[in-house]
Design goal:
With 202 residues, the chain is of the alpha+beta class. 50% of the residues lie in helices and 20% in strands.
């Protein structure tokens, strides 16, 4: 009974891992012991610029955003993370250096998080997790590379259409100003772009 209660708290994460590689009972136990649940309220910080990123977050429900505020006070959103997505400042997390980024909750958000030391412990005690997290990091790198290429070679319309394809589930959950920040345009330009795309052709 106690074991079932322990597994229940990390059930979404166990399901996620099992879709990649089936886990043994010992590996499930490791996940249940090392990942901790945390609820972040809307607008609550997960990470603030200047702090060291000490946890790797798996989103159970809700939405996080990672962003940078420039010297002029403009917000540049780098990534959103919703259900079954992961988020951290990877450079700060692994380098133990102060982060230049912020992470906060756009909605009330439940995560399961793991510390750096516990992640290393997970790798040591469960060999499958080395492969699982390597795939996670590789997929993250591919997404980042795709986003970088879009920013330097795509039009605003192409970036918006890509956003609608990759983040369609967020279209009605995010304020227009945050979508605009993510694709690198003003909210006013985004409004005109949306009107253009929905306007019937004569």
């Amino acid at each position: 009974m106690k074991e079932n209660i322990l597994y229940t708290s990390v059930a979404p994460l166990l399901e996620y891992f099992n879709r990649l590689i089936p886990l043994s009972s010992e590996e499930k136990q490791l996940v249940a012991e090392l990942f901790k649940p945390r609820l972040y309220r809307k607008r609550q910080y997960v990470l603030q610029e200047g702090d060291v990123c000490s946890i790797f977050n798996f989103v159970v429900r809700g939405c996080l955003r990672m962003y940078k505020i420039d010297d002029k006070g403009n917000t540049h959103i780098i990534q959103f993370a919703t259900e079954n997505w992961w988020l951290m400042d990877i450079g700060s997390f692994h380098g133990k250096e102060p982060s230049e980024l912020n992470i906060d909750a756009i909605e009330d958000t439940m995560v399961l998080h793991i510390s750096y030391n516990d992640l290393i412990n997970l790798y040591t005690k469960g060999s499958k997790f080395n492969l699982i997290f390597r795939v996670l990091i590789e997929n993250s790198f591919v997404s980042l590379q795709k986003r970088l290429l879009q920013n330097i070679s795509s039009t605003a319309e192409e970036r918006y259409l890509s956003f609608m394809q990759d983040y369609s589930h967020l279209n009605n959950r995010l304020p227009q100003v945050q979508i605009a920040s993510f694709i690198g345009i003003t909210p006013e330009f985004l409004s005109r772009l949306r009107n253009k795309l929905v306007k019937p052709k004569s």
